[in-house]
Design a protein that fits this description.
mainly beta, SH3 type barrels, Thrombin, subunit H, 3 domains, 6-stranded antiparallel beta barrel, 21 strands, 37% strand
């Protein structure tokens, strides 16, 4: 193989004649803890505050405390979803976060929420992708993306007040740690305005299933912010003593280092390779390896003078004497040097 590096819901379907009274009903029954979770505006004019627990292209389920409401997306005007951001707990000592109570959302909606956390990583020798995991700008990419390079650039898309994204290149990128064996690198970005970065949560307890829907965001062949989706083909594919997530999600050169998400918007893996000539054969480094790498980052701290770090350049041996080199090992004489 040629690997390249890179039913228990209560259904209350609304009708036009009851939509107008839903808000009043919910105001009396909804606990305050849900009051600011998600806001759903219906086409009939009613507004519902609750927690979106599942959403597809056709239906949406909203937990309002007393019950779970089930709506057709044809009746929904807008959904202002926080994606349980209030439940995200940042572990500053480990430079990544986990989240609780995240809603299942379609990839297109998750891409809108999480897209600004995905970056493009550029070096003089090529490019790849990455994902920001902390508000301080710590991000993960592949070791082979930054291999032998210290001149790094990150392209970030900052969310604007009008809902648009501003493309920004950041040249102040520090290479913090590199582990070539598991093909991971930790970098740190400096926000040009000194603000916090939008970041993506990492899956806490590993829950992966064959057939599970997943999606990837990255820059395949330099095509920025590309969304691809598929399923997990197998959760444990072994290469060189490590296990990887195999997926039929299209993974191409340039995707390397980018995140593989589940439908809750959690990073479940870092895409790093595919098989040339094979279709729908992509692989990702499981999140458990990512978390272990970050927790033990001091063991893999980047040092330009450490041959086990990102640089592997060796100086050629120096000649001890001037003139022609000594006799070759097979007994023949080396040709004389011409001045």
């Amino acid at each position: 193989m040629d690997l390249y590096s890179t039913n228990s819901l209560m259904k209350l379907t609304p009708h036009a004649f009851v939509v107008a009274g839903i808000s009043a009903l919910l105001a009396a029954s909804m606990p305050s803890s849900l009051a600011a979770a998600d806001t759903i505006k219906l086409k009939g004019g009613a507004t519902i505050d609750g927690a979106v627990i599942k959403r597809t292209d056709r239906r949406i389920w909203i937990d309002v405390g007393a019950t779970v409401l089930d709506f057709s997306m044809d009746d929904v005007d807008t959904v202002d979803s926080t994606n349980a951001a209030a439940n995200v707990e940042t572990k500053l000592d480990t430079l990544f976060s986990t989240a609780a109570g995240l809603a299942d959302l379609p990839p297109r909606e998750q891409a809108r929420i999480l897209g600004p956390a995905v970056i493009k990583v550029s070096t003089p020798g090529g490019l790849g992708s990455g994902v920001i995991l902390s508000r301080d700008g710590y991000a993960i990419t592949n070791a082979h993306v930054v291999q032998g390079e210290t001149n790094l650039r990150a392209t970030v898309w900052f969310a604007q007040a009008d809902g648009t994204l501003k493309r920004t290149d950041i040249d102040d990128v520090e290479l913090v740690a590199v582990n070539n064996h598991i093909d991971l690198a930790l970098v740190k970005l400096k926000h040009p305005e000194g603000k916090d970065f939008l970041f993506a949560p990492v899956q806490d307890a590993e829950k992966l299933e064959t057939g599970q829907s997943v999606f990837a965001i990255g820059s395949p062949l330099g095509l920025e912010r590309t969304l691809t989706q598929g399923v997990i083909s197998t959760t444990q594919r072994s290469f060189d003593g490590l296990t990887y997530i195999q997926t039929d999600t299209p993974i191409n050169p340039g995707n390397s280092g980018g995140p593989l998400f589940n439908t809750k918007g959690e990073v479940i893996g870092i895409t790093n390779m595919g098989i040339r000539g094979g279709e729908a054969l992509g692989f990702a480094i499981p999140a458990r390896y990512v978390k272990d790498f970050i927790r033990n980052r001091e063991s893999f701290a980047y040092d330009k003078n450490n041959p086990n770090s990102g640089h592997n350049y060796q100086k050629p041996p120096t000649r001890t004497k001037d003139g022609a080199p000594p006799t070759l090992k097979d007994g023949s004489a080396a040709p004389a040097l011409k001045s």
